[in-house]
Amino acid sequence: MSTTVQGQVEAGAAGRSGSRLVEVAFRVRELGILAALALVVIVTTAVNPRFLSVQSIRDLLLNASIIGLLTVGQTLVVVTRNVDLSVGSVLGLTAFMTGTLFVGRPGLPVVVALLAGILVGVVCGAVNGAVTAVGKVPSLVVTLGTLYVFRGIDYAWAGGRQINAADLPDSLLTLGSGRILGVPYLVAITVVLVAVAAYALRSYRSGRELYAIGSNPDAAVLAGIPVGRRLFAAFVLSGAVAGLAGVLFTARYGTVDATAGTGFELQVISAVVVGGVAIFGGSGSVVGAALGALLLSTIGSAIVVLRVPSFWQQAIVGALLIGAIALDRLLALRIAAALRQRSVRNAG
Amino acid sequence: MPADTTTPAATPGQDRRPLARRLLRWETALVALLVVVGLVGEQASPGFLTGTNLFYLGLDVGEIALLSLPLTMIIIAGEIDLSIASILGLTSALLGWLWNAGWALELIFPTVLVAGALAGALNGFLVTRLGLPSLAVTIGTLAMYRGLAFVILGDEAVADFPASYTRYGTTPIPGTSIPYPIALFAVLAVVFGVVLHATPFGRSVFAIGANQEAAFFSGIRVRRTKFILFVLSGAMAGLGGIVFTLRFASARADNGAGLELAVVAAVLLGGVSIFGGKGTLGGVVAAVFLLGGVRSALILNDVSNDILNVVTGLLLIASVIAPNASAAIGRAVGRRRAAPATPT
After folding, report:
1. Which residue of A has its CA nearest to B128?
2. Measured between alpha carbons, how far is A228 from A221 in angstroms, rounded to an integer?
3. CB distance from A312 to chain B under 8 Å?
4. What are phi and psi of A312, to 5 degrees?
5. Cβ contacts (< 8 Å) between A214 and chain B: which residues?
6. What gap in Å lies between CA B102 and CA B98, rounded to an integer?
7. Would strands A183-184 and A179-180 be described as parallel, antiparallel, or unpaired?
8. Distance CA A9, CA A336 (A)
9. Is the CA virtual torsion A46, A47, A53, A55 positive or negative?
10. Residue A11, pLDDT above cutoff 60
11. CA dist list (Å): A123 to A148, A206, B332
């Protein structure tokens, strides 16, 4: 841990050439996920050529889209050296809410449901953000707490009820299964959000400040960054994304009960970490995280196609996750060493 | 019953604080809450404090209680282990598989404990030798160990264990209403409490959590200590796997799924700081039984179990806000007092 901090300090000292090196490393990291993805797809296609058909690719993307969407919000939070464990519960809450809304009023425009979902997500995120930022308490504990609270509210509201696709209007279900220019709506929404978030994190001052906070929270305060406000915003956005994902969950699956999205938080964090976002903040990209989600869900599908007993899936995902963080560690050590050499050369 | 073990071992220095301040400790609040839950529970549904109900309460929290002991130490050392429930599932699956393979239970139990310790050792290796963050490592092994459990046993359930063994998981110690797992837990809690609060090893755990570098430079073997803690955590999870399997007389790969968050919640609710360096085993024991008591009281009153989620979550958030809030109040009071009088 201390070496990465040292590496970051020296990255500042080494100046522009250093930051370019770090950027190259990032790109290498994303290329690594793409290479792993390509490997999985090629091996699977060799066994069953239909794995690479248009319909199959569409399904692969569709399967990854909801977790992929959640990684956008989670990345914003994780780069600040925080974590949002409540996303699965927020998703469950808005998923059930969406179902209930439409059962009562089948004619409701879908936009209203989307906005309602986002709004509820924003409220949940604001609770997380306020307690974390104002109370200055660890987000791991706060969001573990709200994971229970939001899920409890969901259970209390839903009871044992289940909402089925038959109760839902076609307008909503079209959102889950329809396409625009051949691309499923869900995939399009995820891609757009990933692109927007990637641009904002890269090119906006507030986006860069999220990284600064994650690299060194104390230094961020001294640098005049409004740390509390940025953290609050990151949690609100994460909540909003989870709220949106809840609506899309109902649109996609049609069947919702109080357990929707249980355990998603760990899947999302796995995807984010496999995607190269450092769990202790300060580095990583939204694109990498989304690719991580795509890789994990593609492995899931490949296992089915390859007729590997599905029991192996979790074990493989876990091993992959550990491999990914070990690789990141190695990469960080290499970069730190390279930067140190460079700064020595610059000084001399 | 839990009250015996909840007296927090006071660390030197705290004794000098005024009595009122000492009573304001989070642990004291937990014990008070525990008493309140007991009284209110008895009031609302007579029979709450009877032996039978307490027996089931104890049985219900058995695994969480056992797993909370090593996790307390790990969190105090500034790390975390999220893979414990998966190790529980893995050892439970292994237990079932070995039983199907015709092994004797007397041989299976130690094997399973060793398997749990090995699983913990892998966590410890990745954290201490490769220097990876334990949060990420144990999220990975959470998936991996659970996956291995399914690889071993698939989705079948092994349930033909002899009653001579399953009775340890389902009946109280003859003549009392104490479940066997809780008796085991009581003994282990004392051992863990003594080790954590009264031995050099325990002091070094606190030192590592408070400031790892300072601990290293004062000659504490940081990596070895952490490694031992992870191995211990794995072995205890193996024990939890045995207890869980005997209690339900069923070895399944999905046993204990999701239990890790409940255990983390109990430990943090017990006043252990997620940043490490602070906490008492007594507080955690009180928190475990508080959560169990609330659940039992809610069930007896036909309040849906779901509300427990909300209560758990709110208590958890309160547990982190309370110290900060009381510190802020303390500062405000201190300032007001310091203003008129001359500062000492």
Report:
1. A1
2. 9
3. yes
4. -75, -20
5. none
6. 6
7. antiparallel
8. 10
9. negative
10. no
11. 16, 21, 31
Name residue, tokens 């058995």.
B62
What backbone torsions phi and psi does residue A183 show, to the nearest 5 degrees? -100, 130
Task: Catalogue all structural domains in chain B, each as residue range(s) with its CATH number.
Answer: 2-6+52-323 (1.10.3470)
DSSP bridge pairs for A256: A163
Query: Which chain B positions have a beta carbon within 8 Å of A161's beta carbon?
Result: none
- CA-based nearest distance A181→chain B, Å: 37
Amino acid B186 reads A
Residue A213 pLDDT more than 50?
yes
What top-level class would CATH report for the domain A2-347?
mainly alpha
Q: How far is CA B201 from the centre of its chain?
A: 19
Residue A164: count of CB within 10 angstroms of its CB: 12
Whole-angstrom Cα distance, residue A182 to residue B176?
69
Q: Is B174 helix (H, G, I), strand (E, B) or coil?
A: coil
End-to-end CA distance of chain A: give it in Å, rounded: 28
**CB contact B141 to A (< 8 Å):** yes
User: With 0-12 CB in 10 A as exposed, 13-18 as middle and 19+ as buried, what is A97?
Assistant: buried
Nearest to B29 by CA among B324, B286, B309: B286
Chunked into runs of 10 residues, chain B (344 residues) has average pLDDT values of: 41 52 74 86 80 83 92 94 93 93 90 96 93 86 90 87 83 84 93 94 94 92 95 95 91 85 88 88 91 83 73 81 70 65 47
A329 Cα distance to chain centroid: 21
Q: How far is CA A102 from CA A96, A117, A253, B209, B312, in A?
A: 10, 12, 14, 51, 31
The percentage of residues in chain A with a pLDDT greater than 90, rounded to a whole number, is 25
In this prediction the pTM is 0.81
Measure the CA–CA gap between B137 and B127, rounded to whole angstroms: 7
Distance CA B265, CA B315 (A): 9
ipTM for the complex shown:
0.75
C-beta separation of A142 from A83 below 8 A: no
CA distance B102 to B41: 46
**Residue found by looking up tokens 């992959």 in the block:** A320
Chain B nearest-CA residue for A83: B135
Helix, strand, coil percent values for chain B (each to nearest 5): 75, 0, 25
- Amino acid letter, residue B269: L
Residue A5's pLDDT is 44
Give contacts of B135 with chain A, Cβ < 8 Å.
83, 140, 279
Counting one residue from chain A and one from chain B, the pairs whose CB atoms sit within 8 A come to 154
Q: 3-state secondary structure string, chain A?
A: CHHHHHHHHHHHHHHHHHHHHHHHHHHHHHHHHHHHHHHHHHHHHHHCHHHHCHHHHHHHHHHHHHHHHHHHHHHHHHCCCCCCCCHHHHHHHHHHHHHHHHHHCCCCCHHHHHHHHHHHHHHHHHHHHHHHHHHCCCHHHHHHHHHHHHHHHHHHHHCCCCECHHHCCHHHHHHHHCEECCEEHHHHHHHHHHHHHHHHHHHCHHHHHHHHHHHCHHHHHHCCCCHHHHHHHHHHHHHHHHHHHHHHHHHHHCCECCCCCCCHHHHHHHHHHHCCCCCCCCCCCHHHHHHHHHHHHHHHHHHHHCCCCCCHHHHHHHHHHHHHHHHHHHHHHHHHHHHHHHHHHHHC
Residue ranges covered by each domain of chain A: 2-347
